[in-house]
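User: Structure please.
Assistant: Input sequence and predicted structure:
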Amino acid sequence: MLRDKNLIPLSHQHQRALALCVRIDRASPIPENDLDAWQTEIAQLFHAEVEIHFAAEERVLFRAVSRFSDLKALVDELSTDHVELRQHFSAAAARELSSQDLNSFARTLSAHIRKEERQLFERMQLLMSAEELTALGTKLEDALKDAAYVCAVPNPATALREKRS
């Protein structure tokens, strides 16, 4: 299903986070001497964009769909994912992630994003009217206004590489 224009800002942020997940996957196993660079990039992404993204989803998006009983379990699951992902981001900021932890983080983040895109957004677009989606888009725009929309250039340790065999 074509993404409603009012959800596209969230989808664009999802694409940037998925790109990080792909790079982590392709770099795995991540050498010990590259862990700090990866964790620095993850912490920066959280501070610049993901922290604001999660807050916008929780305050605006999840509340907007709370009236749909068939979405309650999914929203609860996504909220639990946010708690787990915040722990990963916090551990990255504290430079506590191992190579295996980075892989777990990437899998968790990727699965979470795909759940939002393929399940939540698709159902929202079927359940909500055009007017409701437009009103939601206005609220999301305001909630996301402080997110940094910059192209993060990976350092040599975190740049996209060919998948290792």
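The longest helix spans residues 35-65.
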